[in-house]
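Hello, quick one for you while I still have it in my head. A protein chain has come my way and I'm curious about its shape. Can you walk me through what the tokens say about the fold? No rush at all, and the record is pasted right below.
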Amino acid sequence: MRHVILSVIALLSVSAGVAQAQGLGGTWQGTLDAGRPLRVVITVTNGDGGTLNGVFRSIDQSPQGVSVSALALEGATVKFAIPALGATYEGRLNAAATSIAGTFTQGGKPFALNLARATSETAWTIPSPPAAPKPMPANAVPTFEVATIKPSNPDQQGKGFTVRGREVITINTTVRDLVAFAYSVHPRQIVRGPAWLESEKFDITGQPDIEGVPNQLQMRTLVQKLLADRFKLTFHREQQELSIYALVLGPKGPTLTKSSGDPNGLPSLFFRGLGSLPAINVSMTDFATVMQTAVLDRPVVDRTGLTGRYDFTLTWTPDETQFANMGVKVPPPPADARAPSLFTAIQEQLGLKFEPSRAPVDVMVIDSVDHPSPN
């Protein structure tokens, strides 16, 4: 379970009183059995006004991780959540405040996690974080130095865009997927073109001609140039009135955790399953783009006015209208579904709302496109 726990320095918000907060101050450690033993270390310190600051780490995986959204000590009950992992913890603090017997839950699966207060003699050594990969200069305009395009395995499911070191990789992507990613549009905003545009799938691996890890804009630039060079894509833009979802603030306002990641770094938006989306270092534009590209059946326009980056996990029960862009057929939701629908979940969990509307939007009219030139 490589995604069970990552780690990062995180601010833990709490409404517990100062006396209760004192009971959790210190370093806590325990072993989580998640298919293999994983040592967990949680360091809790007291902040102003009875708040708590803390760090959550899984030291056998990585010293880096994701923010903890909330921590509460209610009587002897300890609770906290890790939204970007879809995880929660609940345990009971003993009378001497030296141990917590509890359960770590992720993806609906509970794992026993008992924590003991560490001393200077018993505390585990926290490994040093690995050196962060060097980012590509922000003003760089890269081109693929070399790119390999090959047909995807026809039995392969799903699709994806990712970065591995310097390499930009796409998996099981059609040309329509590539255009949607490169120009941040919904597939419905791509019109005309031959039928194979959305039926033939490709795996692409490309190395930029500039050192460093490309950011999101640079990844899009690379794919734009690849489409023009290798697929000979040409197009023009028009405006059409389409059905859209406007991403807006909910009635009570957003309940999002500010990210501590690099504001110029890559966002992380990788589905852990249908209806489970951990988001790390994500802007609302990033979120709107992945929802329109992967989940929803119409374009999504960000109208939240939020300009920051956030960590969260959105968990919902998908219905048969969703994930068609990923080539997935979702069955009707079961009557006893535990997670809410998407439109309920986004309000309850993020304080946002998808508002159906019609609006004029840009569309890309494909003028010409060819099969990819040889590698």
Notes: Residues 144-236 form one domain.
